[in-house]
Fold TRAP transporter substrate-binding protein.
Amino acid sequence: MIQFHRRSLLAAGVLAAPAIRLRPAHAAEFSYKYANNLPLTHPMNQRAKEAAEAIAKETGGRVEIQIFPNNQLGSDTDMLSQVRNGAIEFFTLSGLILSTLVPAASINGVGFAFPNYAAVWKAMDGALGAHVRAQIGKAGLIVMNKIWDNGFRQITSSSKAITTPEDLRNFKIRVPVSPLWTSLFQAFGSAPTSINFAEVYSALQTKVVDGQENPLAIISTAKLYEVQKHCALTNHMWDGFWMLGNRRAWAALPADAQAVVAKHWNEAALAERGDVAALNASLQAELAKQGLTFNTVDPTPFREALRKAGFYTQWKQRYGDEAWGILEQDLGKLT
Ligand code: X2X
């Protein structure tokens, strides 16, 4: 008797796929996947859904984009490999994590660099963003012009409130997989552990780590408040998501379809920025009701601690004078 392996039967389309997918009567000419690490309820997925609908409509159904939120297709590290090899066509990724492939892409995460959103968008829609996008292009990936907002990051903890840099000493904190993140918390004398977002909730729940840092929109939509007690409003870095594309999949699209896709991804990013800013401004009260205790911090001693640890001079060297010069042109002297 011939034995078939389940996987080859699946690949051959003999076995039914686990989920039924409703397809339009005419299958799209280009059926692409967009994957990300955030819950479906986060504005990034809400706006991406609108964009995908607009793209299907405006291309007359030729381009269909299916959204896979919430790490359904793997961790950020996995998805970065997949967008490079074409297993997925679009992927939003934090520049800091992308820096494992494109070192320049973490530059917006330098600690306490941005004072407010006006400074963020001036830099990221201006010379700094253009510099990073050029490096992403050199690494063989497509990137859209407008970066999506993740937000200013805040530190949560299950063990104690963080009010001074000293409170971060020996603090067991989860950081995303990125040399800049590890370096930042090492400069505070913390014990950072690199963990992909897919594992963060359970790492906090099982106390593998005592804390993590993320913008309020994520603390809320990923329900991290269920496994954390304190939240320090540190605003220690601004983080955003680049919309990346696989180069071959992009090149396969006719120029008019490329223009439609780029237009809607970029418009969605701008709309999402508005949503996230509004959420981050209003969520504190809601999260407090869920049991999170908030405190503000004076950023000055935190910045001073980083300076004393040599954090800024070290990263200036790593990015090089050109990139650092662009950063300081917008933000003033950091070292
Ligand atoms: O992993 C995180 O903490 C997140 C969701 O903020 C990023 O994608 C960097």
